[in-house]
Amino acid sequence: MELKPTPYRPFKWGPHYTTMGIRDMPWDEWIELDNQMQSFYYIKKHRIATRGNKVVKILPDRPGIVRSARHSAIELVHELSDYMSKRFPDAFTVKRAASGHILSINLVLVGETLDLPPPLAPKGSTKMREVSIPEAEEAMRVAAMLTQDDLILMVEGFDGRYYFQGGAVCVSGFWRMRDKIGLTLDEIHIQGHVPQYEEKLQQSMDRYFRRLAVEKPISRVTYFFQVIPQKSVRAPLDTASQSAAEPVVANDSIVDPEELAWSVTTNGNEESFVHGHPISPDNPPVVRAENLRLRGERQSLRRLPLSGAIAFTVRTYLVPLEDIAKEPGVPARMANTLRNWPEDVRKYKENGLFEDVMLEFLDRAVEKQRMEGGEAYVKDPGQGYPF
User: Fold this and answer.
1) Long-range CB contacts (within 8 A, 24+) of 94-101
2) pTM of the shown model
3) From which domain of life does this come (predicted)?
């Protein structure tokens, strides 16, 4: 596959403003696919094999509180299979029943065929069949392999709040599904210490979730920064090595050398990580420009038509800082953004790990661009936010 990753660079000139940053999402942009798909596939496959229900899980009904996401899981895997086969026909082919529903999907890039469960309802009907938790979790495992995104199912509770009731969260990097599944939207953000959430975001986010229409999906872009292992101790990112590695935790660094799935360098051991507490790496990270990454996230929200659950997708992009430094106008915008973060944002994004090294490197890149192309080159606006 020749498609390059979408170059999201969500940096703006001027002061920092805390907003949701939501945009309307065209249907053909629901899921993005690019030339990193094979690598993501092997990382996810490894994570599912080694972590099991820590990365793929569906919660049961909680009487009087919220329903299970088991029906939504079946609906999601069929929606994804149909979308991917039509949007990327060279990468996905499907086998359909006489009725038109998908029986199986072939992932051309890796040569694997995955069976789908029976559809949630007959074509043209809104009457949903019964679904067990094991069947729903298998559906989520299949769904996870069809996309580079993490997948989260939010279900409206009897109190009107939205609950994280299931998902396939394999490459989240800085948080674990076990710490957030079962929580409400508010609890997830408040316990996660999201800056200014209660003051500026809570009401808007609650409103968007309640009012989100099936025909009006939305997306947003956010970002963090990540320190990865030094090149001298890092295995090459190679799909042949990824596919050949035995599915054991000891092979994490072979399958995922840049720590897309879990940032050991920043957070320490995944199993001993304490949610809600300051990070505690096993060893102080070595921070150099060569092992700094922009960790961009492109998120989408769409309501599933039958179950009514909200499918929340998170696609992560790891971009080397050294590559960003060569892009017209981006180093200056990025440095401006970092310098304008309020203290709570700085703390949330763990800037103390990398800020001095990153700003020094970006400032040198800005001066290089100024010498090569003048002030217009330094302030090149690109394609506009968030690119």
Assistant:
1) 99/123
2) 0.95
3) Eukaryota
